[in-house]
Amino acid sequence: MFFLLRALLLMPVSTKASRLIVGAFFGLLIALGLVLVRDYGVSWDEPNNHLNGLVNLKYIASLVLPAEQIQQNPTFATTPDIRNFPDAHHGPVFEISAIVLSYLLTDHDSRSYYLVRHALVFSVFVVGVWALYQIGKHRFQDWRWGLLGAVLLVLSPRFFAEAFYNGKDIVYMSFFALAMFTLLRLLAQPSVSRAMLHGLATALVVDVRIHGVQLLLFTAVGMLLESLFNATRTAAISSIWKIAGTYVGSVAVGVIAGWPYLWAWSVPELLSVASHAVRYPWGFTNFYLGEQVLAKDLPWHYIPVWMLVTIPLPYSLAASGGLLSWLRRLWQQGIASGLSTFEGRTDLLLALWLLAPIVVVISTHTVVYEGWRHLYYIYPALLLWAVQGFMTLARLAWQRSSVQLAARTALGLATLETVHTSVRMVQMHPHANVYFSFLTGPTAEKLFERDYWCLAYRQGLEWVATHDTASTLTVNAFWHYPLYNNSLILKPEQRRRLRYTPGNTARYYLAGYRWHPQSYLDSLGAEVYVIRAGGIKVLSVFKRLPQTPNWKMNPPANSVGSQRLPSSAYDSR
C-alpha cells in the first residue's frame, strides 16, 4: 500500500493526464450527486429558509409591480412583508436562486421544488470542493496533493450527507472556501481585476451569512503580511490603496445588491438588529455528553469535542501533525524567516482560518447548537492541514531514518481507515449525518444528539404509506414540523393520504431521538419500524393497536384538530 501511494505521488504525469484525472473526479462527483439527490428528506430549517427567499422576492416585486397585483398573486398574498419577518436578516441569495430555478424548471409541486433545491445545494458543495482543490494545488505546488484535499472533503460522511440539504452551513462553507481562494490569488498577484473578483466572492459569502464580514479581516491580514514580509514586491502606496478601495467597494456593492433586506431598512435600524443576527437568541438545549445543556451555557470544550467525534480520526490526527510540524519549522527558522515566503504567509492564513473562529466562539460564549455546524466553514482549512500532515508523514516514510517504519505504518493505517470511512458512508446512506468517527452506537446514543435535522421522518412516512393500504393515514409526532417538512418531498399520491392528528387519535406515531436519548413508552403502541445507521437508532415508528391504552404524550401546543399535510412547496409558509 505504501509503495502504491509513493508511485502515485512520484510518478510523472503529463498536464493532459492530470486534467483528465481531475476532470474525471469532478465528473464522477457530479454524477454521484445526480444519483443520490432524491434520497434525502427535508431538514428542519428548509421550509423557513424557503420562506425567507419568498419574503425577499416579494419585496423585490413590490418595487416594480403595483400593490394590487402583489396581493392578487396567490404566493405573495400570504407571504409576510420583509419588515414583519423575524428571520429576514438571514442572507437570502441562495434561497432566492433556489426559488427562481424551481419556478423556471419545475411544475411547482413541493417535491419538485425540494429536489431542485437539494441539487442546487450539492452544486454549491461541488464548487467548494473545487475551491479546496485549487487552494491545495497552489499551496503545495502539486495537483495531486490538492486533489487529496478534495477527496478528503468528499469522504467526510457528515459533510457529504449535508451537502444535499444544508443550504446554510454547507453553502456558507463552500463560498467561504471560494473566497479564500480568490484572496490567495489576489495576494499572489495583486491587480484591480483580482481585487474586484475577491470582493464579489466576499459579498457572496456575506449574502449567505452576515458572519462572512470576517473575510474583510482575513484580507486585511493577508495584505499586511504581504507588505511587511514580501521583500520582492515594491508596490506603490497609491497602487495598494487602489486595490484595497476596489476590494471594499466591490464588497459593498455586492452585499447590497444581493440582500434586499438592506434596501428596506435604514442604517440605524440595521445597526439595532445587527446583534440579533450575529448572536442568534436560540433558547433551546443541546444534548451534550449525556446532559441537556442550554445553548447559552455551553462549556468551552463543546466545539472541540464535537469536531473530534464527527471528523474521521485520520484527518484530525493528520491536521494536528501538520500544524505541529509548521509551528516547529516556524520556531526553528524564526517568524521573519518563516513568513518570508508566500507559502509561509499562506500557512499563517490557513492557521488563522482554522483556529481563530474556534477561539472567538469559546472566548465570547457565542451561541451555537446542533453540533458544530456553525463552524463548518473552517473544515476546508482543517483538511489542508491534514494534507500537510500526510505530506510530512510521506517525507518521513521515504527517508531512511529511525521513524521510517512508524511513518509507513501510520500512512497505511490512515489509508485503511479512510477506506473504512467510505464503506461506512455507503452503509449509512442516506443517514450519514449521524456518523461518529470512533464512538460505538450505544455510546453515541447516550452522549450526543442524533438526527437533529429530523431527516429520517421521510423514510418513516414512506414506510407507513407503503405498508398501510388505507386511504387515510393518521400520523403524529411530538413536534409536527418534521412530519410537515418531510411530507413536502413525498410523492403527491402518498402526501394526499396523510393526515396529522394530535394526541392518541393517530394510528402511527413517529419518534425521533434528538432530545430523547432514552427508549419510548410501550403505551405508544408496537414498534413496527426502526431506522438505524452506523449502529445508532435514528427513528422509530409505533403503530397504535386496538388494545393499546391512551398515549401518555401531550400534543404540540399549536396542534388544532386534524390537519392534512401540505401539498405545495409554497404552502411551507
Task: Give a short summary of the structure.
With 573 residues, the chain is an alpha/beta fold.
Produce the secondary structure layout.
Elements: H1 2-10, H2 15-36, H3 46-62, H4 67-72, H5 93-105, H6 110-140, H7 143-154, H8 157-162, H9 169-188, H10 192-206, H11 214-229, H12 237-257, H13 261-264, H14 267-278, E1 285-288, E2 291-294, H15 302-310, H16 313-333, H17 335-338, H18 342-364, H19 379-398, H20 404-428, H21 441-447, H22 457-467, E3 473-476, H23 481-487, H24 492-495, E4 498-500, E5 508-512, E6 526-533, E7 536-543, E8 563-564
Parallel strand pairs: 3-4, 3-5
Antiparallel strand pairs: 1-2, 4-8, 5-7, 6-7
Helix pairs in contact: 2-6, 3-5, 5-6, 6-7, 6-9, 6-19, 7-19, 9-10, 9-11, 10-12, 11-18, 16-19, 18-19, 19-20
